[in-house]
Structures are given as C-alpha cells and as structure tokens.
Amino acid sequence: MKKAECVRIMTDYDIELKFLNAKIQYQIGTDQNELQMLNDKIREYKEQIKQLNEQINKLNDNALSPSFIQLKEDEAELHKEIEK
Asked: Which spans of this chain does the record mark as coiled coil (predicted)?
C-alpha cells in the first residue's frame, strides 16, 4: 500500500469519525432536551397530584365534620318519613 493511499484512507476515517462524533453530540443534546421536558412534565404532574390530594383531604375532612354528619342523618330521616 502506498503512502498516498494510506493518507487517503486515514483522511476518510478521520472525516467519518468527526461526522459520527458530531452526530453523537447532536443526539446527546436532543436527548438532554427531551429529558428536561419530561422532568418538567413530571414536576408539573406531581404538583397537580399534590393539589388533588389536598382537595381530597379537605373533602374528607368536610365529610367527617359534625354539621355534615348531622345533614346526612337529617336526610336519612326525611327519606324514612317520605317512605311512610
């Protein structure tokens, strides 16, 4: 193999290596952006879940309040009277 041919092959490999490295770096950047977007969505969903849990807790607290229990008892009494 001649020196010129070796240089040409090495140049081809060098170009291919640079291309592949650039492609990898681009993909890493794309993956990082997608990962950041997914992390942002996860944070958003966690916050929404937290708010929903707080609302559920408030509803549960209200359902256990004496006034609500009294309302339910009154409602049950009214249903009994209506059925008579």
From this structure: 28-62
